[in-house]
Amino acid sequence: MLPMTIREIAAAVEGTWLNPRENTPPVTEVCTDSRKISEGCLFLPWVGERFDGHDFIEKALESGAAGCLCAKVPEILRADKFYIQVDDTRLALRRLASAYREQFKIPFVQITGSVGKTTTKEMVASVLSAKYNTLKTQGNFNNDIGTPLTLLNLNETHEAAVIETGMNHFGEIEYLGVMVRPDIAVISNIGDAHIEFLGSRQGILQAKCEIFEHLKEGGLAVLNGDDALLNTVEEKNFRIARCGHSGHSSVRIENLTDHGVEGISCTVVTQKDRYVLSIPAPGAHMAYAASIAVAVGEELGLSNEEIVRGVAAYEPAGSRMRVLRFEGERLVLDDCYNANPQSVAAALEVLAKTECERKVAVLGDMGELGDLTDQAHYNMGALAAMLGIDLVIAIGPKAARIADGARASGGEVLHFETKEEVAVQSYLESGTAMLVKASHAMHFEDLVAQLKEFYD
Fold this sequence. Notes:
The protein is α/β, with parallel strands linked by helices and 456 residues long. The protein has helices at 6-12, 57-62, 89-101, 117-128, 146-151, 172-180, 195-198, 201-208, 286-299, 304-312, 341-353, 373-386, 400-408, 445-455, and strands spanning 16-17, 30-31, 42-43, 67-70, 82-85, 108-112, 134-136, 160-164, 184-187, 220-224, 239-244, 251-258, 264-269, 274-279, 322-326, 330-334, 358-364, 391-395, 412-416, 432-437. It has three domains: 6-88, Udp-n-acetylmuramoylalanyl-d-glutamate--2,6- Diaminopimelate Ligase, Chain: A, domain 1; 104-312, UDP-N-acetylmuramoyl-L-alanine:D-glutamate ligase; 322-455, Alpha-Beta Complex (Protein-Tyrosine Phosphatase, Chain A), CATH 3.90.190. 30% of the residues lie in helices and 21% in strands. It is globular and about 75 Å long.
């Protein structure tokens, strides 16, 4: 964060500096966690459902914070610290990030989508990094606290920014877009994720399209051209690039070859050029992230060589189809960060195409599917069996329907209520490929850690 004076911060957040004094050092960092205070930072107390950061103001100041924003003013103000009173600390953080972002005249790319938005963000950032010093959202730090804190990490060395924005309710993408104000807006697809809160896929489309409300006039919307709902989006005060296999896509995927766990290769054809790409991550769906990155790269002036090099340099973030290899030709596809019907289907297809003696799918509960919950889990089990997966290990109460679906389609099945009941390493025999996938709330990273500890 570039230095901001206390007076500048107070103006940006529409707050009142309660104890102004001369020669107050500028602030170069904002902290929202009283346990992670840096010397001289601004402490912003976050208010959650079960906690109120205002209770930790004194602790933060004692730990070295120079001052704080506060909707609840402490009874006693320390003379050696500053206090800025605001109406709401959440809104204050958004105002601060929005004002700070305005200092940077660089291209901003905002990304959302039901499935693969983090993968798309990482691919786009990898491509842009071939030419520009690029700030990107770390991990999936993509909500109403992560997005402003990401923007506040901008500094004078950055030449581009790729910001991932997530949502599960109406209004959230618009709320984040106020801060990002993108030059390029990306929607990876429209799936069933969060349908419990949004009612239907049409509702999900409506929520995702909030990304256009703050897109720069004349800016570029980059959309999945094979998504039926996204194909209903029409140009308004922005241009559209559609990416996919469909003939109407202006950024078209051709000659896709699946190399199993080694990745894929394809050609992406635009109105300007042809890009022969090698994508070092498994799954045919990776071609969408790559084609979107091509569209963004072209828009921002990258050469063919830079785009090809950037795609080849892609690395997955966290537990997103990460390939782990253990002795005895044991292979683990660690895709346990999150799960919904579309991403599970894609992961099962990768497992099915993997060359090995035995294939095992460890699948857990998928969350936030509402009325689709029962049928979606059943369908995933049936799909696993139909793809020839040798063993389905279903874990969790909702996953009982995964077991039912696999069993009904003739598959070998085990079901456990909790992951603590499973000695997962006993199913990873020599010559086995094992997929591990569930919604994040299931914490299947514990199973992957269990495997690593056993075999490393």
